[in-house]
């Protein structure tokens, strides 16, 4: 009876689906455990072998937890909104919803390409997903709830006194009774004070404008990364070297009216929460740096010849007497107002140049020094001295106040800037206010110095100086102590089609929320997915996109009369909207009325184990924590943090193949025959290269039309040997290996074991298809413990001590490895165990039944088949994991080294319970001892039971 993986795997995948073997219960007496993978974006390219790595790891853990008696929730879905589908739609004329559906479910696209489909690919690998809970963020029944969360954010404000989000109605009540003078809220800067009487006298529209300055999601003019080529705003992580990651289009900084979210309100809670979760220190540190907490002071510098002030946040208020110039971000709103006529051309040219660099690029570039003097001067708050105001792209409009008080003697960047522009108009001499030599470099330390040339701060250090200067600034009403965060409010608008529509319409230019009972507001049909001719987002092309407040329905745009029918929001939500709460939807995915019921949320609480890529550290993982905290404030989410433990899987890299074309010819020379030839390495498709690095020349010639007439210089053996290099797995490098091909040839269990065997989960490792045959061989060897050519050979024989030792060593090792996420060493242990049992000729049911259970998290199909053929009718998936019994690893014998005068001559195996006298008697009678002694009597016999035997003299 041979091992036939394709037949076995198809059988069990069908049974699991029919029996809903992995369905989780929302109410169970078992303890719960929630395992989640970061869900994929379904591209037409489908899965390659690198994608399932984290899924296999989470599946091993999920299956193990079921064996331990847990009610396991292990769901899967698709993050199916996004720019790639929209760009593909623009290029091919296909509807994004159609291409997305085909990419998930499989089928043929408009161009006739056969698409395998993510669902089919995932099913073939044998994951224990609860598919009844599948979500797709682009389905209206899902984004209905994303729209609902947006409305909750709009109808909330952040009360600093209670340190939580509250309903906007509580803020209105305060305004009605007391005005806003004593409101301690996270809100826009420079909100005008008003009394209760004034509030109550305001027109409704005026009140709404004021409330927008407090709401957790709000409309504001914001500096954004605008990509004209894509016609949309991009997030920082969608830009590489000043161009869009997708398409390589130029990106510029531009002011636009956008929806934003006050994630900054949660900065401190986001920081503190990191101490309560089991994440890698590197991810935590990335978030701490992104949030960027700083303790310091706000300082107001009055402008000369201008009524405005420049407000600066500084972490070093003690150095205020060292200020020699100020720098504003080029985008700062005051730049246009204060620039003098003679500096206008230079300033405008600099702003134009800077707009083409992303914020991330400006932050990372510490070498380039650039800036322009505005011609304007500010006034030092204490000395009243004139301070020149510059602009420079190392200052960012969105960080702090977009202004820096430059103290060159105490800051390396200010020092470099001052020296670079030394002697130019508007750049004074550097002032030294510390008792240190600054002739070569700035002194930026907070310890080991005293302030000098600093008026009332002379003789003080950092701590005393900071306290003193804040007190003095408060006296003259030009500053105060402040904690600042680098974290900025998140821009929430995208000028795209393929995203969640906002549940928003506009009356007199002010946003109004559509009542939740009328959700979802479904994405309309459009003729084209590009911006309109007059620059509006793609939804501006929609013929039916206005809100009728009488019918409470979306109607023809032509019916908009701004009386009862109003324009709808034309922007859509960003890609991170749907992924910022999806783990809660899995808890109760079929609920039509709520995003999840209170009972389901209470039962599952949070994700116990989350596995995904580290590239999401400051995007998805931060936004998810923000939304979770907000939903907890509003009484929906049961816990403060969504993900208890996080593991970042490493990348599986591709092993590329290279052929070598002799320059100027269409001749290719084998790698081992290059010699003096000048060659150009060219990627070859790895599917036409075998495990011995031999190129199939005929298939290569048929692969590309321009290679059809190519000539080949082969080696002495008549073979063309390619070069190899480990790179990122990518279609463009022709090094992609699909899991479908591996499953078809070797089976899914082989793929699963091999991916786990490649190395530690968190590390990057290269894929090498040549190594997979060894794992396949192991599974065939495992099968032969149970079957020979004639059928089942499992007996009821009593297991031997060695049998039990091999088994329990494996139970112990695998249990510890899975709990420690050391999956590769488990696979090694399986191989050791099967080799030992084969050598022992073990076919005992008492050994082989528990062995099938132990291996089932890794290789579930073969385990199910073995379990079934051993006579069990139930699935192996929920059978209790075998219990490790330490007694089977306790050695009853010891192999002693027998030494003569300290030199080991032979070994002898003896029972551990022998006395010294019994050991000595046995050793002395051994013929090998007699031969060594050659008739002599030793002076001394040293015996340490369980350790050594040494005969001396």
From TrEMBL:
Domain (Leucyl-tRNA synthetase editing) ranges: 288-473
EC number: 6.1.1.4
GO molecular function: ligase activity
Domain of life: Bacteria
UniProt motif ('KMSKS' region) ranges: 728-732
Binding site for ATP: 731
Keyword Aminoacyl-tRNA synthetase: yes
Annotated ranges, domain Methionyl/Valyl/Leucyl/Isoleucyl-tRNA synthetase anticodon-binding: 804-916
Main subcellular location of this protein, as a coarse class: cytoplasm
CDD domains in the cross-refs: Anticodon_Ia_Leu_BEm (cd07958)
Signal sequence segment: none
Stored Pfam families: Anticodon_1, tRNA-synt_1, tRNA-synt_1_2
Localization: Cytoplasm
Catalytic activity annotation: tRNA(Leu) + L-leucine + ATP = L-leucyl-tRNA(Leu) + AMP + diphosphate
PANTHER family referenced in this protein's UniProt entry, alphabetically: LEUCINE--TRNA LIGASE, MITOCHONDRIAL, LEUCYL-TRNA SYNTHETASE
HAMAP family tied to this protein: Leu_tRNA_synth_B
Sequence similarity: Belongs to the class-I aminoacyl-tRNA synthetase family.
Full protein name: Leucine--tRNA ligase
